[in-house]
Each structure stands twice: as C-alpha cells, then as structure tokens.
C-alpha cells in the first residue's frame, strides 16, 4: 500500500492526532470563532513549513493590514521576520474581492502560486467568499477551482473561516479535512478544544482535544485514552520482585511489588501516603531511575521531609537518578500532564514513578466524565514502558460518615490496593496499613501496625505476617 506524502504541521500534538500531518496537496478547512486561534494556527504551520524549505503564500480576504498582524505575531516564538518576502509571501486580496469579485481573486491566487512556486497556501477570510457569492454553488465553485489549481501545483491549502459551517455546506463537501477550534466556558473557566471532523487519506484520533495558546503558539494535547487506546507495547508484569522500600511490607506482600505493577495507596490526610511513596523511591537500586510527580508538596518540601526522615534521597537527586516534578492544583490540562509523564518515562527509562495524588491529576477528567478511561490509558502505557507505579488517593473522612473512596472501577485498574489509616486510642492515634488487594500473589490479610519516623514509613512486628493466597 502506497503511503501518501505528508506535510508536518509544526504544532505540538496535531501530527499525533492526524497520524503524520497534512496530506501534501490536500485542502483543509479550519473553522472557529474570532479569538479561537485560527490565525496563529495557520501562521505556526506556515513558518514551520518555511523552516523546512517550503514556500508559503498567506492570502487574506480581511481588511486587517498585514503590519498589524506582524505586530501581534512578533510576540510568538515561531515568528521569523527574515522569512517575510522570502519564504513567506503575504498577499492582500481584500481590495480585489471588493472591487473585482471572486473570479479575479482566483486569478490572483493562481498567479501567485505559480510565481512563488508555493507549496502551502493559506487563505484567511473564507466567510467573505460566502458573503460575496450569489448562491452556495458559487462558493463551491470557488473552493473547487482553487483546490484543483493548488493541488495540480503540489500546494497544500488551508482555508480559514470564522463562520459556523453546517454539515450541508458546500465547503465541507469539497475539502479533504475539517478542523474546528472552539472555546467553551464552564463556570469561571474556559476550555479550548480542537476537533477533527473529516480527514481523507488517513485515520485520525477522533473526538475533541484540549489545546492552549502560549508565547510558543498553539499546543494540542490529544486525549490519552483515544491516542493510547492500545498500549504501544505488549502488556505484561515483570518476572522479578522489586523491594517496596517499606520496612516489613515485602514480607507482607510475599516478596515486594511485582515489576511493572501499579499500586494505589488510599487513606486520609496524615496517614503517611506521601512518606510511603518517598520510601518506595528510596528503595530503588543504584541502576534504577525514578520520578515523583506531585500536586501538593513542592520538591523543596519533599526533599526537606526526606532529609528529616533520613531517607537518603538527596544523593540520587544529585546523581540525576531521581527527579521531582510539581504541578500546583490550580488550572492545568490533565492530558498535558499525562503526556509529559509518559515522555519523561520514555526519555529517562524510569523504572519507578510516584503520582501524588491521582485524584488531583484526574479531577478535570472526572468533570468531563472520562476519569476511568484516562487512568486506564495512563496506567497501561506506564506498564508497557516498563515502569512500576505507586499512586496515592486521599480519603475524606467526616464525623460518623464513611470515607469518600475512589470508584471501584478505578481500583480494578491497579494490581495492588493498600489502605493507610489510623487506630484510635485513648488520647492518641497510631498509623495502620491494610493490604486490600494484591493481584497474582499471596499477601497478608490482617491490619498491620505501622510507624512513621527515622527511616520513613515502616511496619511493626505485630500481626500474623503469614501471606495467604488471595
């Protein structure tokens, strides 16, 4: 089967969604309301294309002068003024449209494509073509003739419009692909989302994907449950047991955590979940690399805690074998965080990771009704990459009420589920640990006493400590 030639977009995440980029010579419609980022989208693609040696014509049917556009684009990192007039040619077709009509606009674009030997054409303001067309057939004719000429010249075309185009519009039937950029307000927050509604010549990741606009331009974060609907490598647990780093826990688990397993540690605030996670990282062998992805305590706070508990994490940090990454629980895109985690796992071949807390990471996805799918994709891909994971989940206890626990379906995604809690006594409380679940192996079923002190989290000697088959 012959593979179609592709044109890289230069937009982070977009080529992953389209499985390789734009099809060379094809025509694409990018629609979105004013402020959605269409112009940034197109210029980012255009400047990336010129950096690859391509020739671009950016034609505008809008009345906005180009020098004003350049003023705004100059604040973005991809903008390269040296390309203007060289690899990038900006053409104003507004006066031609107003004074001479659509046929003359077509002639102008044809001439410039040939003269500039363009390999990418951007036409901004397609809605003005619709407003100047007597009938939808004229709009269809304009798009068709432009597409035929551009394709014959080997030129890929991007058509930008701020009009809401319905499914019966002629533009949709003529183009090879359709992208929508939209902004949705939920409460006090707004979400930017990109959708792919049509893409000839290639499979693509369907649905909507969040994007953001920064000083670097547009970055798109594919929904990981769609991008990674199947892990990138076969799923299997490892053959060896890894030390948990928790004194007494290896014995209670029948030898430790199975390599590539995922463990969920649940419990109320103050039960020692974060200390448990730090112990897990401290238990790594000298040839292992690890990372702590936190949403509550900063790296400085965690290293201070490690020092007070004498866990010895300073040395692996200095050696580059352990990294701490912190994302405050403010406003963030969960797919961006998950994709960043997976990229770091691949790049540094991380054998141990901690997510503290999973609830903070998945809260936005919970609001979107995709928490289970999100966690499933993340856990499966981390396992496929050879990583052993410990994630925490905070239980909320209220007086005389049962704790608010993670959904049962979510717990089923983990190989081990451990409950860190307290035993209340006269004027005191002592930490406890109970293994709720261990997949594929024996474990201690009783509630075990624990302590938190020098050396971090550990189990004391009371309890039967006789592992039983599940």
TrEMBL record:
Keywords: Hydrolase, Kinase, Phosphoprotein, Repeat, Serine/threonine-protein kinase, Transferase
KW Kinase (keyword) present: yes
Pfam families, sorted: ATPase (PF06745)
Gene3D superfamilies linked: P-loop containing nucleotide triphosphate hydrolases
SUPFAM superfamilies in the record: P-loop containing nucleoside triphosphate hydrolases (SSF52540)
All residue ranges annotated as the KaiC domain in the record: 5-234
Keyword field contains Repeat: yes
Entry's EC annotation: 2.7.11.1
Top EC category: transferase
GO MF annotation: an example: ATP binding
The protein, known as: non-specific serine/threonine protein kinase
Organism: Stutzerimonas stutzeri
